[in-house]
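Tokens help. Consider this.
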Amino acid sequence: MPPPADIVKVAIEWPGANAQLIEIDQKKPLSSIIREVCDGWSLSGSEQFALRYADGPQLYITEQSRSEIKNGTILRLAISPTRAARQLLERIQSHGMDARLEALKELAKLSADGTFATEFINMEGIVVLARLVESGTHFGEMLAFTLTAFLELMDHGIVSWDLISLSFIKQIAGYVNQPMVDVSILQRSLAILESMVLNSHSLYHRVAQEITVGQLIAHLQVSNQEIQTYAIALINALFLKAPEDRRQEEHTNPLDLRLTEMASTLAQKHLRSIILNHIIRGNRPIKAEMAHQLYVLQVLTFNLLEERMMTKMDPSDQAQRDIIFELRRIAFDGDNDPNSSTEKRKAMYTKDYKMLGFTNHVNPAMDFTQTPPGMLALDNMLYLAKLHQDTYIRVNTLP
């Protein structure tokens, strides 16, 4: 006969003791079950204990999550999240560097647990971690664990990113801007800046004042694909949050460009070449997250063209008509007889426009009144004619 649906058979571990094989009645309060487990090992103060999974992320088990326990699961009796948060908070503020390092290492693991995170944050733990970063006295593993714990805690969405100080932002941006910084610190710093930008409008402006496109482009030229991925993700986030009227601005030196005004940089051949040579043609296969970030970057770049794509040409606009005349001149003027009659020139123009691929051979401006592609098609033709003239002429003079 199968066991009742409310009964789950599990093993529970405790350091230095034999595991208990028990049946958990899911109808009983979790506190009662923990009390019985503590009694089995003669442990007093059951309210100071909790159950966690022994494998995987080792999350705390709560009344809300207990239904996920399956038959055969191995659990572990542990100190309660409140007690764990209090102890870790005390240890990371201790004067002993070894004790602090071990505490931060443990905190980095526990911070992914929402139950623990709530307790730690309620004790002002986020404030303590931020001060450690702002002090600028932590380096290496200690700083990496601090940043990991901070990011994990903030990702739960319990507190607002708007509470982050300018001093903290400058410190994190400084790690990104340093030419030689530990990879783990750089990775977490890029991730923190991305989260700031995506989750806070005010922090977007502050981050944009600290980071330049040139500094992020440098991180695309490393061999570490994780760093490349986080760098592109930050570029995407900053562009995504940029005010609409700042996205289309043009600049003479894109490598010194502030990210609040970065639209033209996304279309720069320099950036595309770096992505092509260092990422797409790199020595390592492109991972799923990198592929996603490249897709987002491509979409953002294409979106810059939408306005021109949906803009109709005004056939009466002489400046726009002059562009069409220029396209014909570049392709065919060497074949024209300057002494020919007006009628002959008109006939020749009609023939030339047909060879250029226009549908309306008499008034080719009408071809650009259809959207899409609108004026974007004319822009592309002029780009090819001006910058790749030999190719343009060869393509348009084929028989």
Remarks:
- The radius of gyration is 32 Å.
- The beta strands are 7-13, 20-25, 49-53, 74-79.
